[in-house]
């Protein structure tokens, strides 16, 4: 039986013959994308089962585009110059227009076999252009009922994704997305809703981002404001720690709920825990929540409500997610053997864990900006179109979720049709601003070579037989056998450097250097929040920063690397060291090593965790005091935490100088020549930077009774003498 295809021109005709009575048709397969960007190329790669010389025909919406057999292609007139049949009959259309969208069908036939077909519904998308974000109303404060942020693009916008200050929006705030996400509505905006909002406008093949800075001015009210100080994302089996802060200090009552079921209530340090959580749930610090050994069932919406006398209660919803660890990451390759005639090669990354993100690197660097690289299936597949030997190397697939990651590596080998000149180098590709960039090369050609250097596609220099020309003679120089030297490097010198080595009668060889020039690390510093810490503080954060050059942060204490886990938690990529439930045993000198691949510096901070003040008391020496006592000492002390001592009498600050003398740093109050006028209630305020307590003592100074007796004796003697004299005169 003969099959004929529809004709799109008088010279284009295809007939495939197949024997009747056979059962299995030729199997045609493909993993090509069906979505393409206007102006790019459509690449529909195929594989099929027929071992015989196959005839391949391509049609679009029922109209024949091309036929191919034994390496020879016949293309419809309308597509000449744009359509190419590659490899084993795959289709490549360049400079695509919107009219190239439609249903593409390939038909593969061979003598004696039933033809096989496969259809792709191809869609051509406009690029996303001119995205913008607008705000309504223009002025917003905490009395505004709602504010709308609207995202739009001139063309190409289909999907809209919002972030705030570079991070995904959190469910606890209660954002509303309207019109398919094009409008972000913030109900009852608060000051902490201020920030940089970004809208990612995308379609399946392109995206762009627009930003707007929202400013919300505050108003005073009587509502307790509750805020979260910890991440809501946790790894399965780890502890859940939800640290909160709130504005009320008047004996608050803190209640925790999960999915509307009450977990615990806390007041004045005494928690009441639901039966199901006894042994796993603790209330720590000021009412924060700690759940040990998390399970997947611990995920959900946690609500904390804070109440206090005379205040409007405040609440906060924290959506907690428990993530599985990333396991069994692997990379596979299809087809297994690749050369420079292969239409495309796919590297497929897989893991046993769901809900993960896939990121690819090559040679330890991000993938170059090369149209040959296409990510498919959410990044799980890296497709390299028309691979060249320069695409060979070590590829790494990093599989991650918000709390865990693992990677797998794959070495891709691509053989060439002819052996080009082999260009090699062991030069570094990372440099410090101001240093020299030296890209040294060696190559196999014994003949006089011609060498061309370019950066990001723009030629920098050429060299032949020792004679060279460079773009910037003040900084660029060709040295040795054609190697490149750039003096006094700047950040603008970062980029993709390509060297091409050619020689008469040989296939040119190339090598690419992905050069990065880093700022030096300058002005590293460490700050502490809160500034004052005792053993009742839920957590303390040490934040490390640098004016320039900071990329990685490594912490140590007293010169020793910190142990993993336990009280120490690294946040924001190590930028913040959080110490949970700090103790005095955490005191010491903490150092932060701020680094990038070529420079580093260290900043230090001394952490002091102080005791609370306990059991303050006042004692008196001597125990009995009268007005002849030379001096009396009131001694103030505390079991723990005493650093400063302040004295008062009957609630009034003591006058300076006079009878009152402070000894031993205020620890002792000495009253010189005490009088009855010194009697009263003395209070001692014992304090340190984070706590204080008061102890009292009543001082009683009695009158001079010995002096009164003496005066009485003298007066009696005088009266007796007078009476005796009168008696003599008589």
Structure, briefly:
The chain has 730 residues and is mainly beta. The chain has seven domains: 2-125, Sandwich (Immunoglobulin-like), CATH 2.60.40.10; 132-217, Immunoglobulin-like; 226-323, Immunoglobulin-like (Sandwich), CATH 2.60.40.10; 330-415, Sandwich (Immunoglobulin-like), CATH 2.60.40.10; 423-518, Sandwich (Immunoglobulin-like), CATH 2.60.40.10; 525-608, Immunoglobulin-like, CATH 2.60.40; 617-705, Immunoglobulins (Immunoglobulin-like), CATH 2.60.40. The strands form 22 sheets. It has a six-stranded mixed β-sheet with strand order 4-13-12-7-8-9, with no helix packed on it.
Model description:
This protein is mainly beta and 730 residues long. The chain has seven domains: 2-125, Immunoglobulins (Immunoglobulin-like); 132-217, Sandwich (Immunoglobulin-like), CATH 2.60.40.10; 226-323, Immunoglobulin-like (Sandwich), CATH 2.60.40.10; 330-415, Immunoglobulin-like (Sandwich); 423-518, Immunoglobulin-like, CATH 2.60.40; 525-608, Sandwich (Immunoglobulin-like); 617-705, Immunoglobulin-like, CATH 2.60.40.10. Helices cover 3% and strands 50% of the residues. The protein contains one helix and 75 strands. The strands form 22 sheets. The protein has a six-stranded mixed sheet with strand order 4-13-12-7-8-9, with no helix packed on it. A six-stranded mixed sheet has the order 25-34-33-28-29-30, with no helix packed on it. The protein has a six-stranded mixed sheet with strand order 46-55-54-49-50-51, with no helix packed on it. A hairpin with a 2-residue loop joins strand 29 and strand 30 (270-273). The protein is elongated and about 130 Å long. The N and C termini lie far apart (180 Å). Mean pLDDT is 87; it is low at 1-22, 706-717 and 719-730.
